[in-house]
UniProtKB/TrEMBL annotation:
UniProtKB keywords: Activator, Histidine metabolism, RNA-binding, Transcription, Transcription regulation
Matches recorded under NCBIfam families: PRK03065.1
A biological process from GO: positive regulation of gene expression
Record has Cell membrane as a keyword: no
Official protein name in the record: Hut operon positive regulatory protein
Pfam families: HutP (PF09021)
Family: Belongs to the HutP family.
Function: Antiterminator that binds to cis-acting regulatory sequences on the mRNA in the presence of histidine, thereby suppressing transcription termination and activating the hut operon for histidine utilization.
Gene Ontology molecular function: any one: mRNA binding
Length: 147
């Protein structure tokens, strides 16, 4: 079991958000035969962030609707990424915080052996802070889970 340096799924998910040349990163993902999508979400409710990412993943056919293990893997990757964004406390509105995030979802096989199967990565980048303009700071999160 060896993680292939050319197929670091988390790195590619973060690059989809941060790279100034997103088309180059998208080409790499497509050359690998992987699937990806990006989007934006802003909310004071973590459930709305989760829903927006899950909806994008299903609409872009990154996960199959009705296949439990795929939705379950996506959910855990989202929650792990949210832990990074919220510094371990997945709370927003209840503690008077709001987020404005861009997200990327990447699905592929990051290991040399195909027996290791597919994995999914969710990256989040944006701002978090009090629900008033100018009272926020940058934040980032990454979640990776096997399907």
């Amino acid at each position: 079991m060896s993680l292939n340096k050319e197929r670091r799924i988390g790195r590619l998910a973060v690059m989809m958000l941060l790279d100034d040349d997103k088309e180059r990163t998208l080409e790499i993902v497509k050359e690998l035969g992987w699937t990806t999508c990006t989007g934006k979400v802003g909310s004071m409710e973590a459930s709305k962030v989760v829903a927006a990412i899950e909806t994008a993943a299903r609409k872009n056919e990154i996960v199959k609707t009705g296949v439990y293990r795929e939705g379950h893997a996506l959910y855990h990757a989202i929650i792990e990424a949210l832990h990074g964004v919220t510094r371990g406390q997945v709370q927003l509105g209840s503690v008077l915080r709001t987020v404005g995030l861009s997200f990327a979802i990447v699905r592929g096989e990051p290991y040399d052996s195909s027996e290791e199967g597919e994995w999914i990565a969710v990256s989040l980048y944006g701002t978090i802070g009090a629900p008033m303009k100018g009272a926020e700071h940058e934040t980032i999160g990454l979640g990776i889970n096997h399907i």
